[in-house]
Each structure stands twice: as C-alpha cells, then as structure tokens.
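User: quick one, fold this
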Amino acid sequence: MTQPLTDTHIVIVGGSAGIGLATAATAKARGASATLIGRNAERLELASKDIGGARTGVADISDRTQIETVFANMSPIDHLVITAGSLQAGLVAESDPDRLLRAVDERIAGALYVIKAALPLMSFQGSIVLTGGQYSDRPTGQGTALTAMAVRGIEALAQSLALELSPIRVNVIAPGLIDTALFDSLGADIRAGIFRAATKSLPVGRVGTPEEVADAIIFLLTNGYMNGEVLHIDGGGRLV
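Assistant:
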C-alpha cells in the first residue's frame, strides 16, 4: 500500500548536499516537511534555501552527544533517512587505522546513535532508510576495505532492526557510482578518471545522479510493504 508523504515530517541526516539534499527536495515536492542535519551550519542554511525552506540541526553523526542534543528538540518524526558518511579510502598496509575506522564510526556507530535518539519520536507507521553501497557486493581491493565492511554491516543492521523495531520499517538504499561531492576527497584528477572509467564500463553508459537515488529512497518511504530490503541503484555496476 502506497503511503502519501503529504503533511509528514522527514528527518535527513546528511541532508546538506548530494543524495540527502535531493531526497529532501523530492519529499517536499510530495508535500512533506523536512529537517536537515549535518556538520556545517552554513551549508545547511544554503541547502534549506535551495529547497524552499527546511528546519536544520548541526551535528556530526559520529558524535553521540551532538546527535542526542539535536533530537532532544525535534518534533515527531514520520520517516528517518540517513545518508551521511564520508569515503575513507586507503590501503590497510599503508594507512592509519583510526582514519580508516571513521567509516565504521559514521556508518555503523553513527547510524545507531541517530536511530536510538529518533525512536521515541517516530510514528509506528513510519520508516527508516539507511545507506549502504556497491562496495558491499563489489569490493575493489583498492583501498576501500573499511568502507565495504561498513556498508555490508549496514545491511545486516537494517535487516535485524526490521524485526526488532516492528512495525517501523527499515530498509537500505545501496547506490553505485553517483555524481556527488563524496569523491572530491580523492582529488580532481582521480575523480575524473573514476568517472571516465565508469562511463565506459557501466551498462547504462554513465554515472548516476543524486535525484535518481532520491527517487528510489522516496519509493522505500512510501511503499508500506517494503521492509528489510536492500535496494540497489547502481546502473548495473554489480554486474561488471
């Protein structure tokens, strides 16, 4: 049964840019109100203006105290979307383990902090969408081991929580290569090379857009029978 978004409240952690911001814009177009949470107050303000207005909250997803403070003043929540998470790339033999483990701090511990803080405010008819990724199914062996571990862990967490938090639904969106600022940390040349290679190898012949992932997230929010699933939107990247 499709559930309307009209007059619902959607909280998006990681909502100041990329997939999170695109999801907020799409949800607002469907009649929802949005709260955007991110680390940078200025970026949040700009994001709010971009989509015609949204409440904002400043918090680092890996900081439990900051997350609890933001949710302490939150209004009731219908849907929770977590898209926050940086790309921690580096070969294990050559990298600082604490830096690589930030992928786990953000995607596993951070998701737990957010869910725990949000639960008292959530509607039993609502849902949670976590963010996994293609590395779960297609590890590269090129310095993404910790990110792959984290996104695989998100899938296991979501499937367990779909049972534990019932009737609240819990699903995972698993994007492939999407044109967002996530890859900026690798440098302009490496980013451009990755995108060129993807254009040649992906069955669809291009990388994806944040708006395409946002549409898939909206499907997970509004389909009342979708639960405990991992929805891949990767242009066929898992196949090549």
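User: anything notable?
Assistant: The beta strands are 9-13, 33-38, 55-58, 77-82, 122-131, 169-175, 230-233.
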